[in-house]
UniProtKB/TrEMBL annotation:
Family to which the UniProt record says this protein belongs: Belongs to the P2X receptor family.
Gene3D superfamilies, sorted: atp-gated p2x4 ion channel, atp-gated p2x4 ion channel domain
A GO term from the CC aspect: plasma membrane
Native species: Catagonus wagneri (Chacoan peccary)
Transmembrane segments: 31-50
Binding, ATP: K69, V70, K71, T189, N295, F296, R297, K315
Pfam families: P2X_receptor
UniProt keyword Transmembrane helix, yes or no: yes
Keywords: ATP-binding, Cell membrane, Disulfide bond, Glycoprotein, Ion channel, Ion transport, Ligand-gated ion channel, Membrane, Nucleotide-binding, Receptor, Transmembrane, Transmembrane helix, Transport
Name assigned to this protein: P2X purinoceptor
Compartments, record wording: Cell membrane; Membrane
GO molecular function: ATP binding; extracellularly ATP-gated monoatomic cation channel activity; ligand-gated monoatomic anion channel activity; purinergic nucleotide receptor activity
Task performed by this protein: Receptor for ATP that acts as a ligand-gated ion channel.
Length: 408
């Protein structure tokens, strides 16, 4: 590239280009252009603003607290436990209300267990034996109840037996009852108190009706007519999941209670209401599937007159409730402050800060000073007795005083 070409390229780098608009007097093209503008405007107004409400600021960092209380009593009479009254302390685990709690509905009870040697259960495959060599001492029974002692115990002349173990004896051998022991739990109630807060907007709400009536929570039940009564009948909760309480109470199950707070905070606080959804979480397959149901074991320990420890073992079947809270709060805020209120310029200046480099600031200051000097010399104000000159833009200008003329 020659010297002239390099010079031309250098000069072109310093060129300033601006746009030129051509107005076409064509009705078809103009109509198409306006239809396109109208389509974009309709999309913004209908979809963006009215449907999606994109003008709102959103807070999804929901803070939530759950308190639960179950109430109800029932009476049973069994060979293992005799006559017994069950209250909330007996059948709710854990006793303090949390977002996850378990209500016992069926039981297998093995009373008076003591640490001793006894035969392992025949229902444990790893415990079956023919000779003592099948029961190596000191080895635990896989999925069993204790540690092998080295003996194979057979009943009478039977060829096959079970290994003797050191364990809490007698071991659990009974099957699950076909009818729920605590079938009356269907009429028990659970009180679910939920506090939520949207920290971004400093807005708090609870799912309990704000009332001074002390009898409200003692008599109300949740329903379409009482959305702010957080007391739920257990049988109703199970039925809302599409399940039968009596069937579920036999083998247990898991129910999810979801509370959704989708609040438009532009509206009155009374319109920010919870919505409840009930789902059975363990029922993924048929009712007889191994994946269905819920149970676990726990024991209560005692000491006899001689100080020897013994216990009653419970295998509890029941319903586990998982309370989950989701929420979103939206508020019409920045758009109003920045564009639509009387002092929008003030809020806009506070929200957006203009940043310049040092060289740009120096040039701006020098230019401002030069304009002030030029105007001060070219626009000398008339002399006012005792007055001061002030420009419309609020800048106080320097006065050039003239000596007063003396007349005869």
């Amino acid at each position: 590239m020659g010297q002239a070409g390099c010079k031309g390229l250098y000069q072109s780098l310093l060129d300033y280009k601006t746009e030129k608009y051509v107005i076409a007097k064509n009705k078809k093209v103009g109509l198409l252009y306006r239809l396109l503008q109208l389509s974009i405007l309709t999309y913004l107004v209908v979809w963006v603003f009215l449907v999606k409400k994109c003008y709102q600021d959103t807070d999804t960092s929901l803070q939530s607290s759950i308190i639960t209380k179950v109430k109800g009593v029932t009476f049973t009479n069994t060979s293992e436990l005799g006559e017994r009254l069950w209250d909330v302390v007996d059948y709710v685990i854990p006793p303090q209300g949390e977002n996850v709690f378990f209500v016992v509905t069926n039981l297998i009870v093995t009373p008076n267990q003591r640490q001793d040697t006894c035969a392992e259960s025949e229902r444990i495959p790893d415990a079956l034996c023919y000779t003592d060599s099948d029961c190596p001492p000191g080895e635990p029974v896989v999925a069993g109840n204790g540690v092998r002692t080295g003996r194979c115990l057979r009943a009478g002349s039977a060829q096959k037996g079970t290994c003797e173990i050191f364990a809490w004896c007698p071991v659990e051998t009974k099957s699950r009852p076909a009818q729920p022991l605590l079938g009356e739990a269907e009429d028990f109630t659970v009180y679910i108190k939920n506090f939520v807060r949207f920290p971004k907007f400093n807005f708090s709400k609870t799912n309990v009706l704000d009332t001074r009536d002390t009898t409200f929570l003692k008599s109300c039940k949740y329903g379409p007519k009482n959305p702010y009564c957080p007391i739920f009948r257990l049988g109703s909760v199970v039925s809302w999941t599409g399940s039968n309480f009596r069937e579920m109470a036999v083998q247990g199950g898991v129910i999810g209670i979801q509370i959704d707070w989708d609040c438009d905070l532009d509206r009155p606080p009374s319109e920010c209401s919870p919505r409840y959804y009930f789902n059975r979480l363990d029922n993924r397959f048929s009712g007889n599937s191994l994946s269905s149901g819920y149970n676990f074991r726990f024991a209560k320990y005692y000491r006899d007159a001689a100080g020897v420890e013994f216990r009653t073992l419970f295998k509890a079947y029941g319903i586990r409730f998982d309370v989950m809270v989701n929420g979103k709060g939206s508020f019409f805020c920045d758009l109003v402050l920045i564009y639509f209120i009387k002092k929008s310029n003030f809020y806009r200046d506070k929200k957006y800060e203009e940043v310049r480099d040092l060289e740009g600031l120096a040039q701006l200051a020098e230019s401002s000073q030069q304009r002030v000097r030029t105007r001060g010399l070219a626009e000398q104000p008339e002399v006012q007795d005792g007055g001061s000159g002030q420009k419309e833009n609020g800048c106080v200008c320097r006065q050039l005083l003239q000596p007063a003329s003396i007349t005869g």
